[in-house]
Specification:
314 residues, alpha/beta, Rossmann fold, 8-stranded mixed β-sheet, two-stranded antiparallel sheet, 12 helices, 10 strands
Length: 314
């Protein structure tokens, strides 16, 4: 299986809009306002895959499943996996709360009650992110059962994080690859004793998954599969510059963008890594039987027009 051409993560990240400030706010209102204002839909498109994967693992392992979300931010993947919610509902909620003049503490109180009001799936979810405010918030309102704000690109996991990782069955991510590398995944796996987890990752087409797939194979005979013929929209481009630079990078990599990024969206691919002995339990196509998101209604966006010029429009 090919996992993509070589590419330097840092160079690709420089082409992307920088939203770092959104992840260090005391509550997620600004995060949802800005990102969902750009039709950030990848968590919604991923939730069906993650739910199906949890189902398969429950049947295979015969117990409650423990999930680690790498790059979990404020716990949006956890909210969509655990509760019967969608990203549009959450975005509208935080828009309403944003206009109510509430403090972060007041938003947290309302969120705790909001999430408790929904029937929740019996799954344990822990989070890993470099943002301490985001981790604290997601734990405080009950989206995460536990969380750690650590940068495994720079240092090994703490004793607390190692303890938190024990028993993890499934590792998920919807946007961290490119900001984290094989170093983080290798350190997470090295810290987990017992059965090997499955790793389900949505990766922008600008990034190669090959180094991570190799690191996983070295950690315990993992087999990595890519869902062929399907891409998943992440969000609209933030600006003409971001669109232009993303298209240029993809062109350099020999990746065709017609009908995908050229229409004004980042697109991601889905990779699943599993222990070789468990690969035959469920086919990748059964786990990822979801819509790609292309038929949703989106706002005006920067895209490549017929005259090969990036313009703003529908």
């Amino acid at each position: 299986m090919s996992t993509g051409p070589a590419v330097k993560y840092d160079e690709v990240n420089e082409a992307k809009a920088n939203f770092d400030r959104l992840y260090f706010q005391p509550d997620p209102r600004e995060y949802y306002r800005v990102l969902c204002g750009l039709d950030y839909v990848i968590p919604d498109l991923a939730k069906g895959v993650f739910r199906n994967t949890v189902d398969a693992l429950e049947e295979l392992r015969g117990r409650r499943i423990k999930v680690l979300d790498i790059g979990c931010s404020y716990g949006n993947n956890a909210a969509l996996l655990r509760y019967p919610l969608d990203i549009d509902r959450l975005a509208q909620r935080y828009r309403d709360l944003d206009g109510a003049g509430l403090t972060a503490e007041q938003v947290a109180v309302l969120d705790r009650e909001y999430y408790r009001s929904w029937p929740g799936r019996d799954v344990e979810i822990v989070g890993l992110d470099v943002s301490e405010p985001a981790i604290d918030y997601a734990c405080n309102v009950g989206l995460l059962d536990a969380g750690a704000a650590e940068d495994l690109e720079r240092s090994p996991p703490s004793a607390r994080l190692k303890e938190m990782l024990q028993g993890v069955d499934l590792i998920v991510s919807t946007g961290c690859v490119g900001y984290v590398t094989e170093r983080t995944f290798a350190r997470v796996l090295a810290a987990i004793d017992g059965p090997r987890p499955w790793i389900a990752s949505f990766v922008l087409r600008m990034f190669t998954y090959a180094p991570i797939a190799r690191a996983l194979a070295e950690q315990g005979a993992f087999v990595t599969e890519k869902l062929d013929g399907v891409t998943f929209i992440q969000r609209r481009f933030h600006s003409q510059q971001e669109c232009t630079e993303a298209l240029a990078i993809l062109d350099q990599l020999g990746i065709k963008t017609a009908g995908k990024e050229a229409e004004g969206f980042y697109h991601a691919e889905f990779f699943l890594s599993r222990p070789r002995r468990e690969q035959a339990a469920t086919s990748l196509e059964d786990l990822a039987s979801v819509t790609s998101g292309r038929n949703r209604r989106y706002g005006s966006r920067w895209q490549l027009m017929g005259d090969s010029v990036v313009r703003f429009g529908r």
